[in-house]
Amino acid sequence: MGTFYEKAIRPILFTQDAEDAHRHTAFMLSVLSRASIVCSLLEKFSTPARTKPVELFGLRFPTAVGMAAGMDKNAEFWRAAPAFGFGHVEIGTVTAHKQPGNPQPRIFRYPPQEAIINRMGFNNNGCEAIAAALRKSGAHKKRPIPLGINIGKSRITPLDQAVEDYLASFHALADYADYLTVNVSSPNTPDLRKLQGDAYLPELLGALKEASVKRAKKLGTKPLPLLLKIAPDLGFQEIDAILGHIYDLQFDGIIATNTTLARPGALSSANEAGGLSGKPLFSRSLEIVNYISRATDGKLPIIGVGGIMQPDCATRMMDAGASLVQVYTGWIYRGPFFPAQVAAALAPRQREWI
Ligand SMILES: Cc1cc2nc3c(=O)[nH]c(=O)nc-3n(C[C@H](O)[C@H](O)[C@H](O)COP(=O)(O)O)c2cc1C
Questions:
Q1: Closest CA to 113 of 279, 332, 282
Q2: 100-154, pLDDT tens digit by residue?
Q3: In what order do the strands lie in the sheet with 275-278?
Q4: How many separate domains does the chain show?
Q5: What pairing do the DSSP bridges indicate for beta strands 147-151 and 115-118?
């Protein structure tokens, strides 16, 4: 299937501007997401039989592979995700304020390197509109697979008001989420990555944790699992400091990694600004997952993401200590059923990674 896609469909898709191709695909997926019978049939085909679901954060993930943030920014087609083998989906990044993102073009493909550079800049409809879209699609009642919501800072909000900005998104969206990801690692919002540092991170994570605990007390439920998504460009000392804050503030897990500012190998001459994803990112994201797993004695749940372009890469991420993986660029290069192939590759060894 992957080969047919790569030989016959991808060349046609890749003749279109990358963002146009994304828009057309998103439209088809949003139509599919409303055809629940077709989705269920596809899901049966895509989910490996007898796979052991992953139990994490008190949630049940039918497969270990999820749709990474940035694909469904406005919660338009998340319901179609299980049809392709995804066992969870992370929508967003959502910001408190609706924003257009950077001027187009802002997604660039590098087929020989199986890579993408993007500088989207958190284009999204804003937390209130996305909450309404989620409600309309029934996310407050039933979610077929765990739904993560990734939140980030609005571009117009200064760094010293970031906490209120994230809290606004938290309050608007918490009712629709199975877990929430705090994104401080996109390279395309000026200064956002500074929130990863000691000057801002403890206050931000602390405020969100407090909001989550308060909400849970009020509702008489368990607090919403909170995850932090980090950049691959951090040094190990910086990662150690972040792990300290995660531990102190009892965050539930970490997503490693976002896109990189590095331009390894042949991409050293690529002069588009933005974050690089895909194959050239894999060795660094794997190294970080491995580092975090060792530093935390395997006790902190890790979602491994970055350059998973073959099922084998996902296996290596899990061996390095990830509990789940996510894909973005691999879905574009390998085709719609790539997540199903990853899920099938992971299924037989699922018990080893618990
Ligand atoms: C076009 C594009 C848009 C993205 N948008 C977001 C985003 O809004 N929020 C986020 O946390 N990550 C975003 N990402 C990063 C992915 O979620 C993922 O962390 C990264 O691409 C590495 O995984 P991959 O190599 O499988 O693509 C985006 C990636 C791409 C290619």
A1: 279
A2: 999 999 999 999 999 999 999 999 999 999 999 999 999 999 999 999 999 999 9
A3: 107-110, 115-118, 275-278
A4: 1
A5: unpaired
Ligand 1 within 6 A of 182 CB?
Answer: no
Residue 29's domain spans which residues? 2-353
CA of residue 50 to ligand 1 center, whole Å: 30
Tell me, yes or no, if the pTM score tops 0.70. Answer: yes
Q: Look up 46 and say whether it is catalytic.
A: no
Question: Ligand 1 pocket, 107 CB below 6 A?
Answer: yes
Q: What is the CATH number of the domain that holds 37?
A: 3.20.20.70
Ligand 1 contacts CB of residue 125 (under 6 A): no
Residue nearest to atom 23 of ligand 1 (CA): 306
Looking at 33, 186, 212, 285, which residue is catalytic? 186
Within 8 A by CB and 6+ apart from 207, the residues are: 163, 166, 167
User: pLDDT tens digits, residue range 155-211?
Assistant: 999 999 999 999 999 999 999 999 999 999 999 999 999 998 999 999 999 999 999
Q: Which residue has the tokens 């309404």?
A: 132
Q: Is the minimum distance from the CB of 246 to ligand 1 under 6 angstroms? A: no
